[in-house]
Amino acid sequence: MGGEGGPMFFHGSPIVGDLCALAITTSYAFCLLRCFQETATTRVFEQKLNRKLLHITFGLGFMLFWPLFSSGTQGAVIAAIVPGVNIIKVLLIGLGMIKDEATVKSMSRFGDYRELIKGPMYYAITITLCCAIYWRTSPIAIAGICNLCAGDGIADIVGRRFGKKKIPYNNDKSLAGSIAMATAGFFSSVGYMYYFSMFGYMQKNLKMVIGFLVVSLASAFVESHTICTKLDDNLLVPLASVLIGTLVF
């Protein structure tokens, strides 16, 4: 792995620099969520497509801001506040304690607020833990988030449009969707490997690329399995990515 640096702002005061980075990253998250709430309310996109576009862009976009934060535990934990707040938000909405129809429309499959305590909450928990525990020096964080966001998100979009040929062991999943998932997860992972290596957080190498390929293929297989239909791919896909990643990296 590569070295770590200080915060991009206020090098003499890491905490102030991290708080500035937090403000910028929170603004991104707020604007993105607000944008997809509007598109869901005005029906710019079909509801399931709107949900998947948010699914793809939130986590991948969030990782772009990681270099703004300081090294070590402090930067990781402060950055994790951004998705962490969403855990509380979706939990409160999903339990019916607060009402937010725009959020329900943008994050749910069928417009039921109770859906938020499953997939959307697993999604927020995954990104929060990958950030806080593994952070930007670990390919496991990259693999977990990229296969969840890019992989699973693209799989659904492609599968719905081109998924006529079903997988033999699961008629709810398509060959096109699984191929798209493995491809998107792999290439986005490699892209972030290069991105973080630019800042010296990790060393790009062939072994890591092969590791990303193995993780993406395994994640695509798990997503295509009937167990994901019974449970939730937002839970099982990142779990598989982290477990396989721990073995190959």
UniProtKB/TrEMBL annotation:
It is a multi-pass membrane protein. It is found in: Plastid, Chloroplast membrane. InterPro entries: Phytol/farnesol_kinase (IPR039606). Keywords: Chloroplast, Kinase, Membrane, Plastid, Transferase, Transit peptide, Transmembrane, Transmembrane helix. The keyword Repeat does not apply. One of its GO terms (molecular function) is kinase activity. The chain crosses the membrane at residues 15-33, 53-69, 75-98, 119-135, 175-196, 208-228. GO terms for cellular component: chloroplast membrane. It comes from the Eukaryota. Belongs to the polyprenol kinase family. PANTHER family: FARNESOL KINASE, CHLOROPLASTIC (PTHR32523:SF7), PHYTOL KINASE 1, CHLOROPLASTIC (PTHR32523). This is Phytol kinase.
